[in-house]
Amino acid sequence: MPSASRIVIKSPREIELLRAAGRVVHDVLDELQGMVRPGVTTAELDARAAELIAAAGAAPLFKGVRNPQAKMPFPAVICASVNEQVVHGIPDDRPLEAGDIVSVDCGVRLRGYCGDAARTFAVGKPEPRIRRLLEVTEAALELAIAAIRPGRRWSEIARQMQELIEEAGCSVVRDYVGHGIGQEMHEEPKIPNYYDRQQRHGDFELLPGMTLAIEPMVTAGRPETRLGDASGWAVVTKDGSWAAHFEHSVAVTAHGADVLTDGR
Question: Are 194 and 158 a contacting pair, CB within 8 Å?
Fold first, then answer.
């Protein structure tokens, strides 16, 4: 179980600083959503994100991050994960094609506090099964936000997310989970989107002032993942099924959840 002393409870002032960082992330994702179409490259999305983040006086969270499995620090501002890529896709010059999906994860630091959110965008009109994948993944995030109340155990919410996803014929990725967020991008606690016996030791009670990055990652097939290329960054599904990823940073309040990356 996460040590209570390691979960940082934020003051109202800190939550507003997190919201300001989250507003930058929201605006970047809105702009990139409008750019997504056949023929656009994820490198172009990354370049525009870099311009917007710099203009807002913020710094990108992901660029330069190190990973023991990777040969190099992460080289881009956003993660752009296409089709069977789950997370940590490196933007490149391959044009997006009609029917593709692209998951864009964006994080920034502004005045010492972090914002982190992700959305999966359809390129043109994906087939119905893939459209359903996006709808189910976003619905799981919305369910979690609506279910947050002080005193609840996270496992109760994770179980509901898993049930919603699996009843739709999709799978929850288990190798990657959400996290606390504050002055650091990754803080305690870890926030899974599923529940099993092995997760019991990491369960925690929701308390006002907790700030959490909730991010269901869902596949149209099996949940297992692997590294997808020699870079050591991009994560793909083992069975080649496509994946979706939605994320919001939220604060737990006395009455429920306050979304910090919705642009307010």
Answer: yes
In terms of CATH, what superfamily is 11-259? Creatinase/methionine aminopeptidase superfamily (3.90.230.10)
- The secondary structure of 46-68, three-state, reads HHHHHHHHHHCCCEECCCCCCCC
Query: For 27-37, b where at least 16 C-beta lie within 10 A, e where not — what string?
Result: bbbeebeeebe
Do the beta carbons of residue 180 and residue 110 sit within 8 Å?
Answer: no
pLDDT one-digit tens code per residue, 55-94:
999 999 999 999 888 989 999 999 999 999 999 999 999 9
Amino acid letter, 81: S
Q: How do the domains of the chain map onto residue ranges?
A: 11-259
Token output for 170? 């999709």
* Residue matched to tokens 């979690």: 144
Does residue 226 contact residue 95 with C-beta atoms inside 8 Å?
no
Convert the pLDDT of each residue in 96-154 to its tens digit. Answer: 999 999 999 999 999 999 999 999 999 999 999 999 999 999 999 999 999 999 999 99
Q: Are 110 and 21 in contact (CB under 8 A)?
A: yes
| Sign of the torsion angle spanned by Cα atoms 30, 102, 215, 113 | negative
Asked if residues 115 and 24 have their Cβ atoms less than 8 Å apart, the reply is yes
Does residue 1 carry a pLDDT above 80? no
Q: What tokens were used for 130?
A: 């893939």
